[in-house]
Write a structure and sequence with these properties.
Elements (H helix, E strand, L loop, with lengths): L16 H7 L1 H18 L13 H15 L9 E6 L2 E4 L4 E4 L2 H4 L8 H11 L5 E2 L6 H14 L8 E5 L2 H16 L4 E5 L8 H6 L14 E5 L7 H18 L4 E6 L13 H13 L3 E6 L11 H4 L8 E4 L6 E5 L16 E2 H16 L8 H19 L4 E2 L3 E2 L2 E6 L4 H14 L1 E2 L1 E3 L5 E4 L8 H16 L2
Parallel strand pairs: 3-16, 6-7, 6-8, 8-9, 9-10
Antiparallel strand pairs: 1-2, 2-3, 4-12, 5-11, 10-11, 13-15, 14-15, 15-18, 17-18
Length: 472
């Protein structure tokens, strides 16, 4: 079986030397051998397993060296062995974890996927490792055009795509475009408990005071209450009244409304079409741009973009995305093209990241992840039903809401940070990797890799959750 990427919408001319290199029988033979070797070794990783006692002492020494080198211990005692199989990852101590956080949503195909290897082989044969402002290959073009086409499926006016190496950089570019276009307006409206990134500007947006410790103020940011299912009408009304007060208090001073459509770090609370449309409509009436941050939501709901899932296409002025695509991007319309040289980067992305991103998009579309009855929503429904069953079996120890699509969360026990941290540690010891999100309550979240997660994997995860609940 060939795993060679079919991501290019327009194949390179056969006369090009690179196309000849890719088609060289020696390359094809090497690719086949590498894929066979990968398949043989990853097939040994099929489920959760404990550490190998013989490897533990050396592994602990590695962790100590890592902590010393980086100036602090990693969040989990995690150093990969370099091999996995779908949602399973093998660590250097020989243990295997069910990875349902995948680097906070980065590895949409899980670990050691043959399609990623094949795309990386193509990239390794290219003339350069990194692409940037002065250096692009055809894959950059293909990825930009692919993302633009996906974004415009339901009428969004997004004609341009700028690739970048991180979600923070994609969000920085979105703010630069908005401020440049709406100058001298300089204020930003966000939703409370949001997360935008950790640069100086984005730390100003992120609703976490601790993330701004010792950092000078960079932006004027105003916050609105996020929609909450416990009080749908009240939180929607509060946001509408709040944005109207802001417009009256600071007339003409807001450049943009910056939105996460499912609160990421905020606890995986999705909004509704009515909630978001009310705010977006008021913004457009006041000449305020709307930015949708899709760095975490992209490819995890019923449509490629969350703004499509919530039917907000007409309000999408600027959109950022990343994580699962391996390379990040900022999409914007023709009317927002900067009139000055404010958008330029030495590095836009690694060649391997770009080609892997194309391979990810290929697989997600071909495997029917999207649609109201697509795999993303069906797997969410299955996961939610399993969690609801546990909540009934262990009252007060698990509660919803349970997120949206392949962004799953629950509140453990009393929702305190201590309870969440304790349960997260128990889950890790049992072999399931998740992460925390939100505060008051603090919740546990999961980002199963959409490209490879099955109901059997979800059953295994819920078995770990039940074991952790019983032990608390």
């Amino acid at each position: 079986m060939s795993f060679h990427s079919e991501s290019s919408p327009e194949a390179p001319s056969e006369s090009l030397h690179y196309a000849g290199l890719i088609a060289d029988p020696r390359v094809a033979q090497a690719r086949g051998l590498l894929l066979e070797a990968l398949e043989a070794h990853r097939n040994a990783i099929q489920s959760i397993r404990p550490p190998n006692p013989d490897l533990v002492p050396a592994y602990h020494r590695q962790l100590e060296r890592l902590a010393a080198a980086r100036g602090g211990a990693p969040y989990f005692p995690y150093i990969s062995s370099g091999l996995g199989n779908g949602p399973f990852i093998e660590l250097g101590d020989g243990s295997v974890k069910l990875d349902f956080i995948v680097g906070i949503g980065v590895h949409g195909m899980g670990h050691s996927d043959p399609r990623m290897l094949s795309a990386t082989i193509d990239a390794s044969l290219e003339d350069t490792v990194m692409q940037g402002n002065l250096q692009h290959d055809a894959a950059s073009l293909w990825l930009c055009e692919r993302l633009i086409a996906l974004a415009k499926q339901s009428g969004a006016r997004l004609e341009h795509c700028l690739l970048s190496t991180s979600g923070a950089m994609a969000n920085e570019n979105s703010l630069k475009i908005a401020f440049h276009n709406r100058a001298p307006a300089s204020r930003v409206i966000c939703i409370d408990n949001c997360f935008a990134g950790r640069s100086i500007a984005l730390a100003a947006l992120t609703d976490r005071p601790a993330y701004r410790t010792g950092v000078p103020k960079a932006l004027d940011v105003d916050y609105l209450p996020m929609f909450h299912p416990s009080d749908p009408k009240g939180t929607t009304r509060g946001a509408i009244e709040g944005i109207q007060r802001l417009f009256d208090r600071y007339p003409g001073q807001h450049a943009c409304l910056w939105l996460e459509l499912v609160a990421g770090e905020g606890g995986y609370y999705p909004g509704t079409h009515e909630y978001f449309e009310s705010l977006c409509k008021l913004c457009h009436e006041r000449n305020v741009l709307v930015i949708f941050d899709e760095v975490q939501t992209f490819s995890r709901l019923s449509r490629p973009f969350a703004f499509q899932h919530f039917e907000l296409d007409q309000y999408a002025d600027i959109v950022t995305l990343g994580k699962i695509t391996q390379v990040c991007a900022t999409l914007f319309g023709e009317s927002l093209k900067p009139k000055g040289p404010i958008l330029s980067q030495t590095f836009t992305a690694a060649t391997a990241s770009i080609r892997c991103g194309l391979a990810v998009l290929d697989h997600l579309e071909k495997s029917h992840c999207f649609g109201r009855d697509g795999w993303n929503m069906r797997r969410h429904k299955y996961f939610q039903e399993r969690l609801e069953s546990l909540a009934k079996k262990y009252p007060g120890r698990i509660s919803g809401p349970y997120g949206e699509g392949m962004m799953v969360a629950f509140t453990p026990g009393d929702g305190s940070a201590e309870t969440a941290k304790n349960m997260l540690g128990k889950l890790y010891d049992l072999g399931l990797m998740g992460f925390v999100a939100g505060s008051h309550p603090t919740r546990l979240r999961f980002l199963p890799p959409p490209g490879v997660t099955t109901e059997a994997h979800i059953d295994l995860a819920c078995g770990c959750i039940e074991a952790a609940v019983k032990s608390m």
